[in-house]
Amino acid sequence: MDSFCDAYVDLCAGMGQGEFAGWAGFSRDGMSDDEVRQFSAMRCVCADDIRSLFALSLARLSCDGTARAVCSVGLDFVTSEIPVRKLLPVLSELKFASGIEIEYVLSINSDSSAVMNESSVADAFSLLGSGLFRGVFFSGSPFIEKPSVFSRFIRSAFRHGQMTGIDMTHNARLSRAANCLIRDVRPCEVVASSLSDADFLISNIDFLSENNVAAVFTPDLFRRYGSELLNRIRYLHSCGVNVAFGSGRFLFHGISARFFCEEAAVRL
Questions:
Q1: CA dihedral 155, 192, 139, 242 (to 10 degrees)
Q2: Is 169 helix (H, G, I), strand (E, B) or coil?
Q3: How far is the C-alpha of 87 from the C-alpha of 83, rounded, in Å?
Q4: Secondary structure (DSSP) of 106-131
Q5: Cβ atoms within 10 Å, residue 200
Q6: Half-sphere exposure of 16 (CA within 13 A, CB side)
Q7: 150 with 157: CB under 8 angstroms?
Q8: How far apart are CA 101 and CA 166, in angstroms?
Q9: Nearest residue to 188 (alpha-carbon basis) of 109, 148, 134
Q10: How far apart are CA 44 and CA 102, in angstroms?
């Protein structure tokens, strides 16, 4: 495998622990993905901070031989210090300077208390209307419980020919409400990383295959669920589901996205 497509990488945490320590100024074992994300957003106080953070993730992808990447940009990185008008030039610069064919998606974490205030909603629509974004991904428990609250974004994406996705890897706890989630939202892609995510997708396997909904798997929990997770991935693929692989937030896991893709491909 000389090159591959990384189907989903979180730009705020898509690098190794060493690179993150150099950027953040410290290193602490056992730091969770959510802590990394929160610190990264807090640490970015100007456009140059975001540029250097995202560039580290893109450099890791380049070293792995990535030819094309779907890169997630969190709405929480838009602040009063870094408004949309300052963020967009950085994203445009990185898109054409990385040597990788990049598609951006906007990540909306519903666990954030500020995500639905008027300012954040306006920022989200400004970003999605910029022409730089392929679509929007939703994560977090509130979205899982009541996706209808976010229907304005979903309708807008459909009107403008953009895709919608569900990211199950960021603070999303499955519940009874999730049983109808895929059918209610009708996403183009679902990002998963755990056995429960895979089992949820298997329970909706007919809908996924009939509607060409891609199941994107990340190595976040690969060390813990290696063969079991790959067995489920293989089953989904054998039933006609479009399976793809992405690095997600592999920051402290020490797993190369390339290694994960190659190992998974062998089992398909």
A1: -10
A2: coil
A3: 6
A4: EEEETTSTTTTSHHHHHHHHHHHTSS
A5: 18
A6: 11
A7: no
A8: 22
A9: 134
A10: 22
Residue 180, both tokens: 């109808």
Q: Which two tokens stand for residue 25?
A: 């100024």
Residue type for position 247 = S
How far apart are the C-alpha atoms of 151 and 156, rounded to whole Å?
A: 8
Q: How far apart are CA 70 and CA 147, in angstroms?
A: 23
Structure tokens at 86: 């300052």
Q: What is the distance between the alpha carbons of residues 197 and 262, in angstroms, rounded to a whole number? A: 21
Distance of CA 56 to the CA centre of its chain: 16
The token duo for 143 is 């979205």
Global pTM value: 0.90
d(C-alpha 74, C-alpha 23), whole Å:
18
Per-residue HEC secondary structure of 224-247 comes to HHHHHHHHHHHHHHHCCCCEEECC
Tell me how far apart the alpha carbons of residues 50 and 39 are, in angstroms, rounded to a whole number.
12
Q: What is the pLDDT along the chain (268 residues), one digit of tens a residue?
A: 467 888 999 998 888 888 888 998 887 777 777 788 888 888 999 999 999 999 999 998 888 888 999 999 999 899 999 999 999 999 999 999 988 999 999 999 888 877 778 889 999 999 999 999 999 999 988 898 888 889 988 988 888 899 999 998 766 667 666 778 898 899 999 998 788 889 999 999 999 999 999 999 887 666 667 778 888 988 999 999 999 988 887 765 666 777 777 766 655 5
Q: How far apart are CA 268 and CA 248, in angstroms?
A: 20
Q: One-letter amino acid identity for 153? A: F
Q: What is each CA distance from 252 to 8, 17, 169, in whole angstroms?
A: 17, 5, 15
**How do 133-139 and 101-109 pair as beta strands?**
parallel
